[in-house]
Amino acid sequence: MRTGPRRLALVAVAGAVAAAAGCTEFSYISKTYVGLQPQVVTIGCNDPYEVYDQRRERKVLIVSNNLREIAGCGLSGQDPALTRRRRFSEAAATYLKETARETCTIVGETVFTDLQTEFVYSCAEPVEKPGTKVPRLPGRY
């Protein structure tokens, strides 16, 4: 296997692209969800997930944590990766239901990391006007 300057340059470029992708995701999440107070939705056996709700854009960011991903009670001894999509989708759907958006449906999903997934949803009702009182779930205390 050759390890000349071309190969080293290729490795450097690949590393920079990978790092930029992570920075891009972080930048997007920061811009989209900055300043929003997290709400907490529970699923299954009271497994809590933080939810950042961008109502005007009809997007929610579901956030787990490392401990839950290792020892969560909803895992039933399975590898967390095998149930992650189902758990995050269930958290998003439950959140919409508990905040009076039962008619809304999830239409898109973007997995940023093992701990962060964004869901885009669609509703028949128009987006609420700014200042409208909307149902909120409690946050972390």
Automatic annotation (TrEMBL):
Keywords tagged on the record: Signal
Segment forming the signal sequence: 1-20
Superkingdom: Bacteria
Protein name (Swiss-Prot/TrEMBL): Lipoprotein
Source species of the chain: Methylobacterium tarhaniae
Lineage: Bacteria, Pseudomonadati, Pseudomonadota, Alphaproteobacteria, Hyphomicrobiales
